[in-house]
Amino acid sequence: MNFTPIISEPADGNRYGWRSDNGNYTGMLGELINNRAEMGFNSIFIKNYHTTDIAFTTAFDVDDVCLVVPKSKLKPEWQGIFLAFDETTWLLIFLTYLFCVAVWYWIKSVIYETFDHALLMLNVFQAFILAPLHQEPRYYSEKVVFLSILLFTLVISNSFQGSLVRLLTHPTYEPDINSLADLDESGLPIRSTANNLREMFETYDNTNVIYRNLYNKFVFTPDKSENILTRVSYRQDVAGIARKNIAIQSMKNYIDDDKVLLHIVPECPISYNLALMFKKQSLYIHVINDIILLLVQSGILNSYYITNTTGIIRVYNQHKHHQIFTIDNVYIAFIILMLGYTIALVAFGFEYGCFYIPSKLYPCGNKGTIEAKKKLAEKVKNVKKAKFKTKEENVYLPFIL
Predict the structure, then answer these.
(1) What is the model's pTM?
(2) Which of 113, 171, 203, 335 has the fewest CB atoms nearer than 10 Å to its CB?
(3) Domain residues of the chain, as ranges?
């Protein structure tokens, strides 16, 4: 093109620019309108900038304007036990347990005169966790019920163990913000250093409640030194706005322990054609258009995006397939053990206070106590008879009694 470029940045620090409330133009847009620059080499959206003093080149790409939010956090390890099955499956397993207890209770009530009800529920639970019973079922009807429970539990327990191993080796995350409605419910403000991006949430009829709420949550940040994506990644208290391709490329800068810290909301509010911006009636615009068409037809632009985004997509989707279990993975087992011992200690205290101590004081229980009182009364009576055998001694009986 036979020219020497002089590259400069906008004095106010705005990369793209917009028309402010006082009518002045900022950023690259202001540089072109005020004749301080001939062309801008930042790809810019083809949209209404409220001026006729600029011109666009041929559009060379289309990009979505998306919202960038913090990546969801890892779910706690203790939730792995409950995440092995969904809510419906857990409910069916619990109802199956009650059904097995009811069937076995009915069989025992027909066969035996008396039996321990609590022990029956414990036996069914032992069968459900594949634990051995203390007493083998005596009748074939009981054995068939017990065998059916074992076969059912064998399938369920193997599925549970396999799912638990998968959850421990492939950590699961909390649900991501995957729609504008989710973002609205999250309460995160939308922070940006470009005030004109607020327009993406404007609607003509103003009946879209979600867009209206997001419009009201937009926060303009005049401090150009603030990196919005850094704040989204580490402080996790705001959402940012970025072009989708740029956001994907930026993700490689925000990775901590092989975990991407940013998440792009799939539902993007708006899309724009991209072009370069020139001063009105620029002499270079036709030459630049020819170069743009040549780059698009040769596939160089697409190749650039594919080369720079493939790596980050791989990191975004990768998992640790081989993981050594640490205390963080199995501490729930220790919690369950301590909880069981705590409940057992409470039950022991209850049994000790209500059964063991009274049995020591009254070895035969209530019935035995009554019989003991009768025996004691008989002994006293016999002693009295032995003392007053003679007629003379019986004279003193009224006084003694």
Answers:
(1) 0.58
(2) 113
(3) 77-169, 362-401
